[in-house]
Design a protein that fits this description.
Chain lengths: 203, 446
C-alpha cells in the first residue's frame, strides 16, 4: 500500500500588500493495491522458465516473471534428440555477434541450420528468439540492436523452412547479460541471440 | 545598489553557463576573468540564521525548513553557506531591522531571514525576506507560503526557489521531482522498479514492483503522468502511469511489435516513441486521446530516442543511418531530417533543453561515455562528464542542471544518479535508496 501525496495550488503572497492568504491543500490518495496488480508474464514464458533448471542456461532467475504452474514442457534428457535439453546443448540454442553487428557468420549459420532441422522435426515446439547486446551502448540503441540480432536469426530460420508463425522475437538490449565482467571476453558472450523453445502457442 | 549582489552572481552564472564566447563581454570585472580562466566560480556567500518560530509548536519545523533552504542553495554550487558559529549577529524577530555591518563582517553577501508558524488544523505558514547585505537593503519583498505540515519540504523548496530566482534572475528548480528506475541485485539478475522522489532524494515512493523489467520513465509536461517501458507482457511495451493513483495502462501500439523510448510532446497530447518490427526500429507519434498513430521515419536504420523541442515543432532523435549513431532534427511530422552531430564518436539519447537553446546527449568515444551539450545546430559541443558509463541526461526545470545515470565498471558494477551543471561544474551524486538509473526530472510543481 503506497500513499501518494498530491499538493495542489500552492500559492505565494506578498507580505507587504497581501490581505488574504492562500493556502494549498493536501490530498491523501491511497493508491489501491488493486491497481498495483501486475499482469502475469506471458504464458509463453512458462516453457522458458522450465528450461531454467538447466545448468548452462542464461535465463534470469526472475521467479515472478511468470508463474510456474507445472504446465511447462519437460527438459527431457540430453540423450533424447527430441528433447529441449538436446536442442539447447547438442544443437545449440544461441549464436554470437560482433560488436555493433547483426550479421550471421558461418559459425552462427551452422548453429541455426541445426536449429532449423530440429524445429522442422519437432513441430510441436515454437520459439521466441531473444536478442541481446553488451553493455557498451545506450539503452534504446541496444534495444534496437538486440531486435536486429533476433530478427537476423529469425530470418535465417525462415529461410530454412521454419514457419513464420512459430517464431517470435524479443529484444532485451543490455538488460540481461549472462557474463558480468566489463571485458571483451564477457561482452563477446553477451552479444547473442538465444532461441527459447515453447509449446502450444502460435499466433 | 540592489544590483550589486544580483549583478555579481548573474555574472557568475553567465560565466558558468557561457560557452567561452560570452566570456569576453563580462571580462571587465577582474575577479570574474580569473574565475573563467581558472575554471573556478567563487560561490556567493549567504547566511541563513535560524528561522523564527512564531509559536511554540513551530520550533522544530523552523529549524528543518531553514536547513532545507540552505541545502538547496548551497547544493547549486553557486552559493556558499556561512557557518552559524561565525555569526556575530542574529535576527531576533521577522522583519526587525538588520545589523548589516555584522553580516558584512562575516562576509555574508546575502542574508535570508524567515519565520514559521503552525496554526489551527496544522496549517503551516512560512515567511521569508532576502537582504542584500553590501547594499544594506532588502532584495525584493517578503513572501509567504502556507500549507500543511506534511508539505513542509515543498515550502522550503519554494522559499529556496524564490531566493535563487531573485539573486540569479533565473527560474528555480528545487520544488521538483525525479522519476527513475530503482535497481537492486547483480548485473545478470537485476531487479528494476519505478521510483519517484523529490529532486534532492527526499520523499521516495515506489510506483511499481520489480516483477518485470522497467525502463526509462519520462514525466508528462505537468508531472502528473509518467511514460515508461515494461516487459510485463514478456515484450517491451509502453505504459502510461498516473502518478497520483498509480493506475497505468498500456499504450496501444501495433500488436506483435516492441515499443520503447517514449516521450511526451510539450502539450502532453502526443507521445513519440520507437517501434521495432522485423528487425527495424523507427519513430512514431501517437495522439494520446484517439490512439491515432503516424510513422515519422521509415529508413532501414535504427531511429530511436526522440525528444520534442519545447515549442513542439521539431524532434531531435538518434539514427545510425550514416553507419553509426548520430543526432538528427526533423519536423514534428517527420519532415526534413537533418544531421546535427559531426564529432568523433557516437551520439545518442538527445534531450532538448526546456529553454530550447541546447541539446543534451550521451556520447561514446574511445571506450568512454560522456554527457554533453551542444547548440541545436550542432555547434559548440561541450562534454560535461566522462566515465566508464554515463548515460541518459535529463534537464532541470530551468535548463541549468542535468541529471544522468553513471554505472561503474566490472562484475560488481552498479548504477547511480548524478547531477552536473551545464558548465560541467558541481558534479555530484544524487541521494537514492540503492541503485538508480534512467532519471527524468519533472517541471517545477505548481
Amino acid at each position: 500500500m503506497v500513499a501518494f501525496t498530491k499538493l495542489a495550488a500552492l500559492s505565494s503572497v506578498i507580505l507587504k500588500s497581501e490581505t488574504n492568504m492562500l493556502t494549498y491543500t493536501q490530498e491523501k490518495q491511497s493508491s489501491g493495491a488493486n491497481k498495483m496488480k501486475f499482469l502475469r508474464g506471458a504464458v509463453l514464458l512458462i516453457a522458458v522458465l522450465t528450461l531454467s533448471a538447466c545448468a548452462s542456461t542464461d535465463r534470469f532467475d526472475n521467479d515472478n516473471t511468470a508463474s510456474l504452474g507445472g504446465t511447462g514442457i519437460s527438459d527431457g534428457s540430453a540423450s533424447d534428440p527430441t528433447s529441449p535439453l538436446y536442442f539447447q546443448q547438442a544443437v545449440g540454442d544461441r549464436v554470437l555477434f560482433s560488436v555493433d553487428q547483426s550479421t550471421l557468420d558461418s559459425t552462427a549459420q551452422a548453429v541455426l541450420d541445426g536449429q532449423a532441422v530440429w524445429l522442422t522435426a519437432n513441430s510441436d515446439y515454437n520459439a521466441i528468439i531473444e536478442g541481446h547486446a553488451d553493455e557498451q551502448g545506450t539503452r534504446e540503441y541496444n534495444l534496437a540492436l538486440g531486435a536486429r540480432r533476433a530478427d537476423a536469426a529469425r530470418e535465417y530460420l525462415l529461410s530454412k523452412g521454419v514457419a513464420a508463425a512459430r517464431l517470435k522475437v524479443v529484444s532485451f538490449g543490455k538488460e540481461r547479460p549472462i557474463e558480468i565482467c566489463s571485458q571483451e571476453s564477457c561482452y563477446a558472450l553477451n552479444r547473442r541471440s538465444v532461441t527459447i523453445l515453447s509449446t502450444g502457442l502460435s499466433s | 545598489m540592489i544590483q550589486h549582489m544580483t549583478l555579481r552572481l548573474a555574472a557568475c552564472l553567465m560565466a558558468a553557463m557561457s560557452f567561452g564566447a560570452i566570456a569576453g563581454s563580462v571580462a571587465q570585472a577582474a575577479p570574474l576573468k580569473i574565475e573563467i580562466t581558472d575554471g573556478v566560480i567563487e560561490p556567493l556567500p549567504f547566511a541563513v540564521p535560524a528561522f523564527i518560530a512564531e509559536n511554540s509548536a513551530a520550533g522544530e519545523m523552523a529549524q528543518k525548513i531553514a536547513r532545507v533552504v540552505a541545502e538547496d542553495l548551497a547544493g547549486t554550487g553557486l552559493f556558499r553557506e556561512i557557518p552559524k558559529d561565525a555569526f556575530i549577529s542574529t535576527l531576533t524577530s521577522f522583519g526587525s531591522p538588520v545589523q548589516y555591518a555584522d553580516w558584512k563582517a562575516v562576509n555574508a553577501q546575502a542574508l535570508i531571514g524567515g519565520a514559521v508558524s503552525i496554526g489551527a488544523g496544522g496549517k503551516l505558514t512560512v515567511k521569508f525576506r532576502v537582504y542584500d547585505v553590501f547594499a544594506s537593503q532588502e532584495l525584493g519583498k517578503g513572501l509567504q507560503f502556507s500549507g500543511t505540515e506534511a508539505g513542509w519540504r515543498r515550502m522550503a523548496h519554494k522559499v529556496a526557489d524564490a531566493v535563487y530566482s531573485r539573486i540569479t534572475g533565473e527560474g528555480g528548480y528545487f520544488d521538483s521531482r525525479v522519476v527513475y528506475v530503482s535497481e537492486n541485485g547483480p548485473k545478470n539478475n537485476r531487479k528494476k522498479r519505478l521510483a519517484i522522489m523529490d529532486y534532492d532524494g527526499a520523499n521516495l515512493q515506489y510506483l511499481t514492483d520489480s516483477r518485470s523489467i522497467v525502463l526509462a520513465p519520462r514525466f508528462s509536461p505537468t508531472g502528473d503522468r509518467v511514460l515508461y517501458t515494461s516487459y510485463e507482457t514478456g515484450f517491451p511495451r509502453i505504459y502510461v502511469l498516473d502518478v497520483a493513483s498509480v493506475g497505468r495502462k498500456i499504450l496501444q501500439t501495433q500488436e506483435g511489435t516492441m515499443s520503447f523510448a517514449p516521450r511526451f510532446s510539450p502539450d502532453g497530447r502526443t507521445v513519440v516513441y520507437s517501434i521495432s518490427a522485423g528487425g527495424n526500429t523507427d519513430i512514431y507519434r501517437m495522439d494520446v486521446k484517439s490512439g491515432a498513430a503516424k510513422r515519422l521515419t521509415s529508413a532501414p536504420s535504427i531511429e530511436t530516442a526522440p525528444s520534442f523541442s519545447p515549442d513542439g515543432s521539431q524532434i531531435v532523435f538518434e539514427s545510425d543511418r550514416s553507419g553509426a549513431q548520430q543526432l538528427y532534427i526533423m519536423g514534428a511530422n517527420g519532415s526534413d531530417p537533418t544531421r546535427i552531430s559531426f564529432g568523433q564518436g557516437r551520439y545518442g539519447t538527445p534531450v532538448w533543453s526546456p529553454r530550447g537553446d541546447l541539446i543534451a546527449f550521451t556520447k561514446q568515444s574511445k571506450g568512454r561515455f560522456h554527457i554533453g551539450v551542444m547548440r541545436v545546430d550542432g555547434t559548440e559541443e561541450r562534454l560535461l562528464t566522462a566515465s566508464f558509463l554515463d548515460e541518459g541526461p535529463t534537464w532541470s526545470p530551468n535548463g541549468r542542471v542535468i541529471m544522468f545515470m553513471r554505472e561503474t565498471q566490472g562484475a560488481s558494477g552498479a548504477s547511480s544518479l548524478y547531477s552536473v551543471d551545464i558548465s560541467g561544474r558541481n558534479l555530484k551524486r544524487v541521494r537514492t535508496n540503492g541503485g538508480a538509473s534512467d532519471p527524468s526530472w519533472s517541471p517545477l510543481q505548481n
